[in-house]
Amino acid sequence: MKLKSIFVFAFLALVGTACKESFLDINTNPNTLPTASPSFVLTNALNTTTTNMLAVNETGEYWSGHWSQGNGYIISTTTFAYQFTNGDFNYWDSYYDNLQDYQFVIDNADANNQKYLKGPAKVMKAMMFQQLVDLYGNVPYTEALKGGTVLAPKFDDQKAIYESLITLLDEAIADLKANPFASAFTGSDIVFRGNTTKWAQFANSLKMRILIRQARVTGREAYIKTEINKIVTEGSGFITGEDVGAGGSFFYLATAGKLNPVYDRWGYDANGAKRALNNYPRLTQFLINSLKASGDTLRMKRIAYANSGENGSAPGTSNLPEISANYTGTPFGVSSGYLPANTTSLGPSLIVKGEYNRPFIIMTAAEVQFLLAEAKQRYSDVTLPNTAKAYFEEGIVQSFRAFGANVAGAAAYKGSKINNYDWDASTDKLAAIAIQKWIALTNFSGLESWTEYRRTNLPATPQSIQVPDDDKRPVRLFYPNTEAGSNSANVGAQGTVDVFSTRLFWDVD
Questions:
Q1: Signal sequence span per UniProt (predicted)?
Q2: Taking each helix axis from N to C terminus, what angle separates 196-213 and 118-136, rounded to the nearest 10 degrees?
Q3: Cα 481 to chain center, whole Å?
Q4: Which residues contact 476 (CB under 8 A, 6 or more apart)?
Q5: CATH class of residue range 10-64+85-247+464-492
Q6: How many CB atoms lie within 10 A of CB 278?
Q7: Is the pTM of this model over 0.70?
Q8: Which one in 22, 282, 385, 433 has a CA-CA gap of 20 to 30 Å to 370?
Q9: Minimal CA–CA distance to 440: which of 430, 452, 429, 428?
């Protein structure tokens, strides 16, 4: 892993304006570390996290069956035929680089009288490491982020890291409760603007994600139940009614390099010109047809624009009438026959012309409700206050809200007798939870959706047209060649990695 030095323009952080990462993070001589205020570094770290998540979420959206590739481009065999090596999908370097920022904040907050920054930095550190484990399995943890002290860190067992992350989140909550933000520095927090209660709720929500990820692993039930009950006893609760997002109208600007990263990549530039990649992601045929079959057209029309895309003269609406017949998904991995004019594109839940300053979604409230539903369904004796049914139904409500659909549409599914929508009529409650979570994660959380697909095998999405073997799907990534070059002995100690069969510890089948 790289040793990185950090320098941040103080004025830009103080006024809270968004900046391109290159303006906020300048690499200098690694043997002569500059001094930077932890508050400035935290702002940069949070902004950098959104850039990192943008890339990994895109891959996850494809491999979870939400998105395919538009036919106006040469087919990517790396993504859609799974022909990749340890030189592809290197999220490792950028994640560890980002983690160095959070570790800097943790290590230097006390000395700078900014103790209130330690809690948020620890929460983000836990989330980033959880994502690294979900991508690679065993990774450096206990010896990571040591700078020049440890240049070849050992790899830790993935299950042990998961347990350590629960402990780290406990520490984060304790720090958050003990150290309210100084009012002059709330602007350095571009997620919750210094609201430590919401940070604690986010920490508990991440704990639920980490715990439920292990729910199918033999021998973990007692541990999971104990930790869930500890969350309830702690009392801060969970994120509800709103999503966790970074940036927003106070941070992103209508200036090149300062837009919301999603908008900047697949939407429009600062002048409102459509990006070249606007036609690249296409909603899959499986997703669109599944929503139509369930009568779930309110969410469909927020997930996707009708065929031929957004009407630039009336932002947020489609060029064609928004009726079901005008929504056509693209078969996963198909390379011809589905051009932009006759297929659906990323919808108004994600991109609307002119709305360059939406928050970048880090975690949705809908996901949290479905985590709670699964916890209560699996472990009826945990002290969570509501029923699995109540959490499930609230998850659908929060999904409608996040997509921008009328939430009354969620209530209409109660008693509808539609499998996987109406709790009472659903034949497999855990499957219903998994499928509704999969829908709710569309466009927002591709990595989480792909990870949950690997864990649950739900829904049964079609194989890529580029791959004749239906069982051949990636279950993880290779360790990148950059790490193999700089830390070869420890990478080699992990054995031979087969991305189609070397499963992570929570992926039991």
A1: 1-20
A2: 20
A3: 24
A4: 135, 136, 137, 497, 499, 502, 503, 504
A5: mainly alpha
A6: 19
A7: yes
A8: 282
A9: 452
Q: How far apart are CA 504 and CA 370, in angstroms?
A: 22
- Count other Cβ atoms within 10 Å, centred on residue 422: 16
Cα-based distances in Å from 126 to 166, 172, 216? 8, 9, 22
Nearest-CA neighbor of 346 among 396, 269, 403? 403
DSSP single-letter state for residue 9: -
Q: How far apart are CA 360 and CA 125, in angstroms?
A: 18
Q: What is the DSSP string of 43-73?
A: HHHHHHHHHHHHHHHHHHHHHTTSEEE-TTS
- Looking at 65-184, which runs of residues are DSSP E strands? 67-69
pLDDT in tens, 273-331: 999 999 999 999 999 999 999 999 999 999 999 999 999 999 999 999 999 999 999 99
Report cis status (omega within 30 of 0) of the bond before 261: no
314 Cβ contact list (under 8 Å, min separation 6): none
Helix, strand or coil, per DSSP, at residue 460: coil
Domain locations in the chain as residue ranges: 10-64+85-247+464-492, 261-346
